[in-house]
């Protein structure tokens, strides 16, 4: 049954951009700067300065802003290359790295945005209770969260307009702080409270970092912007610059007006040192509420994009619904409200902030990786107006990952594990997007690099079969494909080929047949390439494939095909085998026992003729089968026939020695002719086997006669594989991993 999500075309891809959307100032700069100058600045910046001192604070601010700045460069590169629609960072990642990678980041990003609502409303509640101690902290937080959500549901535009007044209040509070005065005699403490146990540098960093993640507030409104490619870079960099300037000035003011212990213990210390203390309350209340509004506007839009792209389970598709002229995700807002209320009820500021830091750093890191890969590949389709060197993006990604481990290695591991689990879950759902991504470009770059560095000469140490299966109709000769898959272990390059002999076959039909074969293989968990070609006869087609198929030094080294059942075409068949041999391709012919097939896949017989040539290749093929899942732990019997008992003892000893040296799990069996022919011994000894390996002579002028005689010999035997080694490589060296090896 086909996955109902396959070929799902995202609804948001067909939504036209509307005129009259938000501009740079209102849509990006304002929500970003209000989130940057938010709850952390008012309620925790004094705590930061008190714990790590003036120099430590300036380092934290600079390092945090630097990571954010590098991420902003990456965001700007992506935003000026594509039309960024609903979903912000999720949209950017999914359209570049693929829907699985986008979903693996988008779901944690939504959770982070939803928890951000709680972060800001908890901060608001903390400040209100600090002024009015008689109020209940949790009640204030829950009521505030509910009020913010109702505002977002009723009118997103009204919520955005309210942010202009809040910005005025923040500006007023900062002016009041600048013109304030010290509250006590203090000396500037460069590295925090020396007389008490202060929090560590990276712990403080984790609490502060959400302050500079405000750039996501503007990015997450991408679907509501009139011109995202213009507004996102300008608004983001302006907000980062203004925020950095303010955060570099404030520590100096705080460090000169109160000592470290006071800064740590009083969350509203700014109110006491300001010219008009209540202006700080206006600022903190306005900042926390506006940041909460920004988050509750952004989070449901990420959720809406996830639902519309089919990332969320089918039963959650209703979360992609939009209401009103502005396509507002009101249903998603209600769900986000539920998440935020839960976090407000159970959490506090110092617990929520580090969790957000991990999620945001993960998102930032992947955004940087996305931009870095796009720029490194230099695909013709990637033409950003804002150009950034790939090294800066990858430096930003390295910075994000490094900081995550420095903050908390265990939490980082949990965050990565969470993302990986989501990625695997999405991969198993086999989602197909209606857009391209860079994954093909990555594989193309890696493939090219590998091909250009691959030597033409075959090396014994790295040899493995790369089969070309002449399967005909795969459903009729699936045993050939099954055998080839067992030999490659999904490591060698397997190609399934079919020759069409009908006249006037169009390229479209060939392409459709190739896709059908790919689907056939996929359902059976077989990884392989597919090639369909046309020719006058299957034998001409086989020659044509082996002549031309491959890329550079990477060509199939082993041809697997079925035995010829048509005596009228035996000459053409043998001529094709000779042609393969001349091209130095190993030939594996499967003489199928139609009644038994591969039997129980428990016993493999190899009729030995020496380690060189066919013997070494047969041993290798048997070993590969024995170590595959379908032939796991099959018993391998290496058989040899000699003239008398004296020869048998020497042969047994030599054969045991060979098996020991080649390090395979096999049993040597030496048989004596006596008064029996080889055919009689062959049928008696291998009658109970599930698979028999036999060598073939090198084709000569009388090869057709030889092969016809060989076919008669195989009648009544279990499924038999005839092997003809032709590569210019010593299979004995492959087995022994030595320059010299044992020969009989």
From TrEMBL:
| Entry's transmembrane regions | 21-43, 55-80, 101-123, 135-155, 162-181, 201-223, 235-255, 275-299, 351-373, 393-426
Task: Specify where it is mainly localized.
Answer: membrane
The membrane topology term of the UniProt record is: Multi-pass membrane protein
Q: List localization entries.
A: Membrane
| The SLC12A transporter C-terminal domain, residue ranges | 478-591, 600-667
Extract the Gene3D superfamilies matched here: Amino acid/polyamine transporter I (1.20.1740.10)
Claim: Transmembrane helix is one of the keywords in the record: yes
Give the record's keywords alphabetically.
Membrane, Transmembrane, Transmembrane helix
All copies of the Amino acid permease/ SLC12A domain together span 28-436
Q: Supply the name of the protein.
A: Na-K-Cl cotransporter
């Amino acid at each position: 049954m086909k996955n109902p999500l396959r070929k799902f075309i995202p609804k948001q891809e067909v939504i036209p951009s509307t005129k009259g959307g938000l501009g740079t100032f209102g849509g990006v700069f304002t929500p970003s700067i209000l989130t940057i100058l938010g709850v952390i600045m008012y309620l925790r910046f004094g705590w930061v300065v008190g714990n790590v001192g003036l120099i430590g604070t300036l380092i934290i601010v600079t390092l945090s802003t630097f990571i954010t700045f590098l991420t902003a460069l990456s965001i700007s590169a992506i935003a000026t290359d594509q039309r960024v629609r609903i979903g912000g960072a999720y949209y950017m990642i999914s359209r570049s790295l693929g829907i699985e990678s986008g979903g693996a980041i988008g779901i944690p990003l939504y959770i982070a945005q939803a928890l951000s609502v709680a972060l800001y409303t908890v901060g608001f509640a903390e400040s209100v209770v600090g002024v009015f101690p008689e109020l209940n902290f949790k009640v204030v937080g829950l009521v505030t969260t509910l009020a913010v959500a109702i505002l977002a549901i009723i009118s997103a535009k009204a919520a955005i307009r309210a942010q202009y007044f809040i910005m005025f209040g923040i500006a007023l509070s900062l002016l009041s702080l600048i013109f304030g005065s010290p509250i006590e005699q203090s000396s500037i403490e460069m590295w925090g409270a020396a007389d008490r146990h202060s929090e560590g540098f990276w712990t403080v960093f984790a609490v502060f970092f959400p302050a500079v993640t405000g750039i996501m507030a503007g990015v997450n409104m991408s679907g509501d912007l009139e011109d995202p490619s213009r507004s996102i870079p300008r608004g983001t960099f302006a907000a980062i610059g203004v925020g950095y300037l303010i955060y570099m000035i404030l520590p100096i003011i705080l460090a000169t007006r109160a000592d470290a212990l006071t800064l740590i213990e009083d969350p509203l210390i700014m109110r006491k040192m300001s010219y008009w203390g209540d202006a700080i309350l206006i600022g903190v209340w306005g900042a926390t509420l506006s940041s909460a509004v920004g988050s509750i506007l952004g989070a449901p839009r990420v959720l809406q994009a996830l639902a519309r792209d089919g990332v969320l389970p089918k039963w959650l598709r209703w979360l992609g619904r939009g209401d009103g002229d502005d396509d507002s995700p009101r249903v998603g807002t209600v769900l986000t409200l539920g998440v935020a209320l839960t976090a407000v009820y159970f959490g506090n500021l110092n617990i929520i902030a580090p969790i957000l830091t991990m999620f945001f750093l993960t998102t930032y890191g992947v955004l940087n990786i996305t931009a870095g890969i796009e720029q490194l590949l230099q695909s013709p389709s990637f033409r950003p107006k804002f150009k950034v060197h790939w090294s800066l993006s990858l430096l930003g990604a390295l910075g994000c990952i490094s900081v995550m481990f420095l903050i908390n290695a265990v939490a980082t591991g949990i965050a990565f594990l969470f993302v990986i689990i989501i990625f695997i879950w999405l991969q198993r759902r086999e989602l197909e997007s209606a857009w391209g991504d860079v994954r093909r470009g990555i594989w193309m770059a890696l493939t090219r690099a590998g091909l250009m560095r691959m030597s033409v000469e075959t090396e014994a140490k790295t040899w493995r079969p790369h089969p070309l299966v002449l399967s005909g109709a795969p459903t009729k000769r699936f045993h050939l494909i099954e055998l080839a898959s067992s030999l490659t272990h999904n490591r060698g390059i397997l190609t399934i080929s079919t020759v069409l002999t009908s006249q006037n076959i169009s390229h479209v039909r060939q392409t459709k047949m190739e896709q059908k074969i790919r689907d056939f293989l996929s359902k059976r968990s077989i990884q392989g390439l597919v090639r369909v070609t046309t020719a006058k006869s299957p034998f001409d087609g086989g020659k044509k494939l082996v002549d031309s198929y491959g890329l550079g030094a990477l060509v199939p080294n082993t041809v697997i095909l079925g035995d010829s059942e048509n005596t009228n075409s035996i000459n053409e068949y043998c001529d094709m085998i000779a042609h393969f041999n001349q091209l130095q391709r190993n030939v594996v012919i499967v003489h199928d026992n139609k009644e038994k097939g591969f039997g129980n896949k428990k016993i493999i017989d190899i009729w030995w003729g020496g380690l060189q040539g066919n013997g070494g290749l047969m041993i290798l093929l048997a070993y590969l089968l024995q170590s595959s899942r379908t032939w796991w732990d099959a018993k391998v019997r290496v058989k040899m026939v000699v003239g008398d008992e004296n020869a048998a003892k020497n042969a047994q000893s030599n054969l045991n020695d060979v098996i020991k040296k080649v390090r395979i799990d096999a049993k040597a069996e030496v048989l004596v002719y006596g008064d029996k022919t080889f055919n009689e011994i062959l049928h008696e000894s291998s009658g109970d086997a599930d698979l028999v390996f036999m060598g073939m002579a090198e084709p000569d002028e009388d090869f057709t006669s030889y092969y016809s005689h060989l076919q008669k010999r195989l009648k009544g035997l279990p499924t038999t594989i005839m092997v003809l080694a032709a590569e210019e490589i010593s299979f004995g060296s492959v087995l022994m991993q030595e320059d010299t090896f044992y020969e009989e």
